[in-house]
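ESCALATION

Customer reports they have been waiting on this structure for their group meeting. Please prioritize. Original submission:
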Amino acid sequence: MTFSKKIFIAVLFPLSLGILSNPVVNAQTNYPARPVKIIVPYAPGGAVDVVTRKIAQKLTEQTGQTFFVENKAGATGTIGVNQVAKSDPDGYNLVANDTTYSLIPHIFKKLPFDHSSDLMPVSAFVFVPMGLVVSSESKHKTLNELIVDAKKEPNKVTYGTGGAGTTPHFVGEAFGIAVGANFMAIPFKGAAEATQAVLSNSVDFQFASTTGLMGNVKADKLRMLGISGEKRIPALPDVPTFAESGVKWNGLINWTGLWAPKGTPQLVLTKLQKEIAIAMNTPDMKSFSEGMGAEPKQIGSEAFAKILKESTENWGKIAANTAFEKQ
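Update from on-call: job pushed to the front of the queue and completed.
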């Protein structure tokens, strides 16, 4: 071996060891190496909670590390979101949310975090139509009957929401604009409480993702009068779309997604996206999604960011046409 080659190896070898022993690189490559917390910024039992717990279970099975859910409800999800936005960007603190995340800039005058940059979209999955349900004992058998009553007596027909400024609240506002009627929104502490109010006939109807409604619909406790999207879903073939009922409005397709704090390493984000994609392609996850009337697909961060931008802009237009005042 020549002298020059010896020098080259002598220099390269310690450098290689330095790279291989770099704890930051190793931590990213070995992710996840310890339990991962996913904050659900809403009360247990709602659509985001149900879907997130299912994906957390699949990620746990696939990676061998525990992905666990912690509910941190309050202020239309911003308390939980802010907690994650301020946490270490190492991939061990994530937040789940749905379309509501694109609503919050139109709900609050000031947020405790930067909505556009403090969180990085990781992946969106389980795309779910929104259903309008009434109690099985309700006098309203069709969507048109509900609309006719609302037009006769403005603000008398009520609907339950998981809180002022949540997705169901704004969907109700958008629906009222589309049909030319005024409904009265009644806020509750979460979607599950709003469902109980419909079941007890305390409010007339509710908008919610089919994920959170399917069990009560299948048990004939709730009657679904209409569903968002361009086509009926196999799980509820007898429920017409809003368009089929004569409403010039397709409604909203809700989704659940995961975000990570700004600065989370790309290796970690890529790993998460890969594992979520694998999970969504399992028979178990497909069956779960389709059973809830959802489309079991997954999109990565780039497509997710585009959806967020468009959704935020669209909800801004709805907010501008309602009496809702920023908090």
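Sent to customer with the following note: The first strand starts at residue 36 and ends at 40.
Escalation resolved.
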